[in-house]
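Translate structure to sequence.
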């Protein structure tokens, strides 16, 4: 197994502490339709997926379609909340100074949303232009591996030489489907008690709850390679 040549970060819930904000916007939007769901319930069911996935699930529960502009309205409301409220996960700046490998972001989210978040967290300039949005690329979203495979191709590295940091079951599933090494992250404010177990079940080789612990994981993975010869 090759050494780690590319480190791939998810954004929401991994670099930016945005999942509870998104959950609040999504669940508030469903109240007029009689669906009561707490933000905590939302993240446990839908973290790491997309607004379209949530919309489809709610339409099935309601037995009818939501308005055509529902997703657009959600995105606009969320972008406004993120610009006012979102913060980077603790250690997000520090960890980027602690390893030498190239890095990028792979997310399901629209690029506009990612730019708002990463700008607010003072991380946009530390990643651009390597911020890959499955939504913008027009590829299948996680848990499909497409956005991760796109990143590997852009950096001209083998998937087996990539390490992915993800906070969701779908994200870890996507990384493993891409043939990449996967590390789970539970340091976001949305994390629940069984999240680490779920990430392990999805295929995470280890789970961390502090971003600054990632370089040690990268180093250990390199040592495992050395021991393997």
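Result:
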């Amino acid at each position: 197994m090759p050494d780690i040549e590319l480190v791939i970060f998810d954004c929401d819930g991994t670099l930016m502490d945005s999942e509870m904000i998104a959950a609040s916007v999504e669940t508030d939007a469903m109240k007029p339709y009689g669906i009561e769901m707490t933000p905590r319930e939302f993240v446990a069911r839908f973290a790491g997926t997309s607004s379209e996935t949530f919309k489809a699930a709610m339409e099935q529960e309601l037995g009818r379609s939501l308005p055509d502009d529902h997703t657009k309205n959600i995105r606009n409301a969320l972008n406004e909340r993120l610009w006012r409220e979102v913060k980077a996960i603790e250690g997000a700046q520090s960890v980027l100074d602690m390893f030498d490998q190239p890095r990028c972001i792979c997310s399901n989210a629209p690029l506009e949303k990612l730019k708002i978040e990463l700008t607010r967290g003072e991380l946009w300039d530390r990643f651009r232009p390597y911020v890959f949005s499955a939504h913008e690329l027009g590829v299948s979203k996680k848990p499909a591996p497409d956005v991760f495979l796109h990143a590997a191709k852009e950096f001209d590295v083998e998937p087996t030489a990539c390490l992915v940091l993800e906070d969701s079951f779908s994200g870890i599933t996507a990384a493993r489907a891409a043939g990449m090494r996967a590390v789970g992250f539970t340091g976001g404010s949305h994390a629940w008690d069984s999240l680490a177990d779920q990430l392990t079940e999805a295929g995470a080789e280890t789970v961390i709850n502090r971003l600054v612990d990632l370089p040690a994981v990268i180093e250990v993975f390199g040592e495992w390679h050395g021991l393997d010869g």
